[in-house]
Write a structure and sequence with these properties.
Layout: H1 2-22, H2 25-33, H3 37-64, H4 71-87, H5 93-102, H6 108-139, H7 148-170, H8 173-186, H9 189-212, H10 219-223, H11 225-232, H12 244-252, H13 260-278, H14 280-287, H15 289-298
């Protein structure tokens, strides 16, 4: 486990080192030094609001699974999880922690289902917005010109997702039944509406980080380039998405008329805002030191 975390840390550091080596450091430094605090505040507030909405989404999913989870508890655990995901390699340690911390005696399965399905709802909404954005951008003359490698990468992602689903089906009825509640949740309009709202706010938060470093992305990029960049953070070989997020931004920003340095600067600003937005977890720890701090430290391991 420790070796895996060290590898992820090394990958994040390595990718960032490569980006710094090929990026215009003067432009990058100037943009970060002159970052607009108002847009940084908007980005941080947006991410913090997303955490609050995700906690509500998690509570609704838990309720559908007959898992008792008051909103205040869900909010506290979600902030803990977000902070852990930012500072511990892997990106899912926080989710494992909140699963364990809300598990009822002898009922780990439902707690795990609630966390996995809640995360899946967010990814589905992001992919829906991305698909809609691509369809619209392709139908508008003079918009973003998409190179073939973008569609190849997206097709590869779809194939991988389908292959994963097939493997889960072949793994037996237990795996299929684990994800069965997802289809029940997807039929509930309030869940879909909340997931789409959260995805839009997520896009806005990254847009705000780009504005903070002096980059104005077109509307087409809001629905296409930004979701692709944020999806890169899901690659597990990183710490808090660092490296992959900046790398994806460096590659994709030129498609929207910006520079690679602007993309890296936006990614760094966004990462800093993510960490700031997770700091309320420390306030929860201070308010409930005996019941929360020891579990937060011990459970994930």
């Amino acid at each position: 486990m420790m070796l895996h975390r060290l590898i992820r840390l090394a990958v994040s550091a390595g990718v960032i080192a490569v980006l710094l080596a090929v990026t215009d450091l003067g432009d990058l430094a100037a943009r970060l030094r002159g970052a607009d605090l108002r847009w940084l505040a908007a980005c941080t507030a947006g991410i913090a609001t997303i955490t609050c909405l995700c906690a509500l989404r998690w509570r609704w999913v838990a309720r559908d699974l007959d898992l008792p989870l008051p909103y205040t508890r869900a909010l506290r655990e979600y902030f803990f999880a977000t902070l852990l995901n930012q500072v511990v390699p892997g990106g899912v340690v926080g989710d494992v922690a909140r699963t364990l911390r809300v598990t009822q005696p002898g009922d780990l399965r439902r707690a795990a289902q609630s966390v996995v399905i809640e995360r899946a709802l967010g990814q589905i909404a992001t992919l829906l917005l991305l698909a809609l954005g691509l369809i619209v951008s392709l139908s508008i003359p003079g918009g973003i010109i998409w190179p073939l490698w973008v569609f190849a990468a997206l097709a590869g992602g779809v194939v991988l997702a389908l292959a994963t689903r097939v493997m889960k089906k072949r793994s037996g009825p237990n795996a299929a039944s684990f994800f069965a509640p997802l289809w029940i949740v997807l039929r509930k309009r309030h869940q879909i509406a909340l997931a789409i709202l959260t995805a839009l706010l997520l896009n806005f938060s990254f847009y705000a980080s780009a504005r903070a470093v002096g980059t104005i992305l077109p509307l087409a990029a809001f629905f296409t380039v930004i979701p692709m960049i944020l999806s890169a953070m899901l690659i597990p070989l990183s710490v808090g998405g660092w490296g992959w997020r900046e790398g994806a931004a460096a590659v994709l920003f030129p498609l929207a008329g910006a520079t690679a340095a602007q993309g890296v600067a936006a990614g760094i600003a966004y990462g800093a805002c993510m960490l700031l937005a997770a700091l309320p977890a420390l306030a929860f720890l201070a308010l409930r030191p005996n019941s929360a701090a020891s579990e937060l430290i011990s459970k994930p391991s």
